[in-house]
Design a protein that fits this description.
This protein is of the alpha/beta class. The chain is built from 26 helices and 20 strands. It is globular and about 85 Å long.
Length: 707
């Protein structure tokens, strides 16, 4: 069993929110208590749709706002929403036609239904969501977060006075006239212009910035704010102010406290639950039609329709059955997942997206990510990583060698791909063929590229003190000369800060020295009339400790994957990064040893007592360090020590003190199980190395599964 994921509470609440939406449209308590039904459907039920907006804001808008080139990602997400909207329109078109909803419609009426009201009464959420995403994304281009919060709040207030506070608007004829004009375009203000933007933005913000208060604080805040909102709703009802009742002044406050609690709700939600809740939301009006029609046909109208509570339960039951059938069918039609029958890596997509967004928020003005996805994306799997980055709007990458660049191009990755290492001159034609940019490692190498005779895209490496690759910053004449070579298409100029991860004064001083040397070189080049290409000098620790150094690109590596090179590393920015990778293996067999018996090569392990050993299906050929000292794995939420010598394909662990273990059980070597966690940093410390090495040596036999 693994720890509940951070969105498990959200997934679990989705089904509750769907049930509340069903209640809104069936009024379960109307037969028994109009007041009770008002509370259920017009107060408690009104948290459902804002909740769905918050979730969309976190997982869709959060990605869009974090991306520098947000339009492709925004359009991709909107297309998904519109596709679902289109399916829903087709489902309800026959019902709407039969009921006469679409008679005598003008072009303006059709546009109003499609863009604002929805073609059936519950479908307004989809155009509201799509339009709200566009509104917030456009506002984000000209506003910072504080300004965005203010503007979306003002839009919500405008909507509020066309909704539950309309009675106040109606007593002011000039203001009422303005709203009446608006109501010619849309029937309600609970739409994508006024209601959705605030909740979408709040979802993106709450998902990106974890709360720092205790659960008790959020429970108290939720209780008090909901109590006040209840009073607000009944007061508005008493004075008959409501034109509609989807928006309350205190509703955003209630939703903030509720969402904070759901993000930390320690519940396990099955993976199919979000799909089920979506289809319950979509199908329940159709099931309501079925219930009413069937009840009339069999003479049970008084029981199944006249009794509002029975009607609600029947609609819920049929909606669940229909949604479960579709969910089951979708699961059956999905391509079969890898069997995970030996050893594998799981990649947490949400954690990766979170890290990208958090790091983009730290970028200096005008700077974009150029993720380092060399060494198979630090062992994570370069293709799934590159594909997710592309979805997030990232269009520049750096890799170590020609083979890695070609692999990306063959996988359809577009944009800038920079080779950080040396490419032999005989392979220069491949640089042109695959549109790859080559790092100029020294002056003579630049001359070789020029002598190739055809233009090649290059970045100039400047050695400011690491003494690895690049032309020394002091060799100004050579660097100036490169800008005159006809076959060098210089797209970038860069250096590398070799002490950016250090925390002492000497490390800080040397980083400042390198930056100053680089800055002076750039000034000299400008003074000589050279138009500078893109500049980049920040890697992971550079961005975290020296963001003021600036640049046009930041070559982020290990931090992208939620880690630093060493668990002891400190940085000035301290973003909330989340590990992306977990490493898993199977138990192949169980061995029982008497005291004094040995196991493994050289019988390096000797049992001191009756001992049970589990043999795991992973070894040093998969990247597990043979020199691992004091290593452990997780089995059934318990730690089991690694014993003996790690073999090429197997590893021994002592399970004597663990709950029963059997062949086929899953062991976790990096990741969490129950309350226990083993990090890549733990393995690095036990192997006397850094996390970069631990991850990048994870072998190709390991399946990479994006979850």
């Amino acid at each position: 069993m693994t720890k509940p994921h951070r969105q498990s509470g959200l997934d679990a609440f989705k089904i509750l929110a769907a049930l509340l939406v069903v209640a809104i449209h069936t009024s379960p308590l109307s037969t028994y208590s109009p007041v009770g039904d008002f509370f259920l459907t017009r107060i408690l039920g009104r948290i459902a749709v804002p909740f769905f907006f918050l979730v969309t804001g976190q997982f869709v808008l959060g990605q869009v706002l974090g991306a520098k080139n947000s339009f492709p990602l925004l359009w991709r997400q909107i297309k998904k929403i519109l596709l679902l909207y289109g399916i829903a329109i087709l489902i309800y078109l026959p019902i709407g036609l039969y009921a006469g909803h679409y008679q005598n419609l003008s072009l303006l009426d059709i546009l109003r239904l499609l863009l604002f009201d929805g073609t059936f009464y519950h479908l307004w959420y989809f155009p509201a969501c799509a339009l709200g995403l566009v509104v917030v994304s456009l506002l984000r281009r000209v506003l910072q977060e504080r300004g965005l919060l203010i503007v979306t709040s003002l839009l919500y207030l405008v909507g509020l006075f066309g909704d539950s506070y309309y009675g106040m608007t109606a007593i002011l004829p000039p203001l009422s006239a303005i709203y009446d004009i608006g109501f010619q375009v849309f029937s309600y203000t609970r739409n994508g212009l006024f209601m959705a933007p605030l909740f979408l933005f709040l979802g993106a913000k709450l998902g990106r910035h974890p709360g720092k208060k205790t659960p008790a604080f959020y429970r108290l805040g939720l209780g008090l704010s909901f109590l006040l909102m209840t009073g607000e709703a009944f007061l508005l009802r008493h004075f008959s102010f409501q034109r509609h009742d989807s928006m309350y002044l205190l509703l955003p406050v209630v939703m903030v406290f509720l969402y904070r609690l759901l993000l930390i709700w320690p519940v396990h939600a099955p993976a199919w639950l979000p799909t089920l809740s979506t289809w319950v939301y979509l199908l329940h009006p159709a099931m309501l039609v079925v219930v009413r029609g069937a009840a009339g046909a069999v003479g049970l109208t008084s029981l199944l329709v006249g009794n509002s509570l029975m009607q609600y339960f029947t609609v819920c039951l049929l909606s669940f059955l229909a949604a479960a059938t579709i969910t089951w069918g979708k699961t059956r039609c999905k391509p079969q997942q890898p069997r995970r029958d030996r050893a594998w890596i799981q990649l947490n997509r949400d954690a990766f997206v979170h890290n990208v967004t958090a790091l983009q928020a730290l970028l200096p003005p005008g700077c974009r990510l150029m993720p380092a996805i060399k060494a198979n994306a630090y062992g994570h799997g370069v293709l799934p990583v590159a594909q997710v980055l592309t979805e997030l709007g990232v269009s520049s990458f750096c890799v170590a060698c020609l083979a890695e660049g070609i692999q990306l191009r063959k996988a359809g990755i577009k944009g800038e791909i920079l080779l950080l290492g040396y490419t032999p001159p005989e392979h220069f034609p491949l640089l042109r063929r695959y549109r790859l940019s080559q790092m100029v490692v020294d002056f003579s190498y630049a001359q070789q590229i020029n002598h190739f005779g055809k233009p090649l895209a290059v970045h100039l490496a400047v050695d400011t003190g690491m003494h690895r690759l690049g032309i020394p910053a002091s060799h100004l004449e050579q660097i100036v000369q490169l800008f005159s070579l006809p076959n060098l298409r210089i797209k970038g100029i860069c250096t590398h800060l070799c002490t950016a991860d250090g925390t002492d004064d000497a490390a800080h001083g040397y980083a400042q020295h390198q930056h100053e040397a680089f800055r002076q070189l750039l000034e000299e080049l400008k003074n000589q009339g050279i138009l500078l290409p893109k500049v980049h000098l920040l890697a992971s620790h550079g961005l975290l400790n020296y963001p003021s150094f600036g640049g046009d690109w930041a070559r982020i590596g290990i931090a992208l994957y939620g880690l630093l090179s060493s668990p002891q590393d400190q940085n000035a920015a301290a973003p909330d990064l989340q590990p992306v990778l977990s490493l898993h293996a199977r138990v192949a067999t169980i061995k029982t040893l008497p005291p004094g018996a040995g196991a493994g090569y050289g019988l390096a392990f000797t049992a001191q007592r009756p001992t049970k050993l589990a043999v795991l299906t992973i070894g040093y050929a998969d990247g597990l360090p043979r020199c691992l000292d004091g290593g452990e794995v997780l089995l059934h939420g318990c730690r089991a020590p690694i014993v003996g010598r790690i073999c090429m394909d197997q590893t021994f662990v002592d399970i004597t003190d663990l709950p029963p273990v059997q062949a086929g059980d899953e062991a976790i070597l990096i990741g969490s199980d129950g309350q226990e966690t083993i990090t890549a940093g733990d393995l690095a410390r036990q192997s006397n190395t850094i996390t970069n090495e631990i991850l990048s040596r994870l072998g190709p036999r390991l399946e990479r599964l994006l979850c």
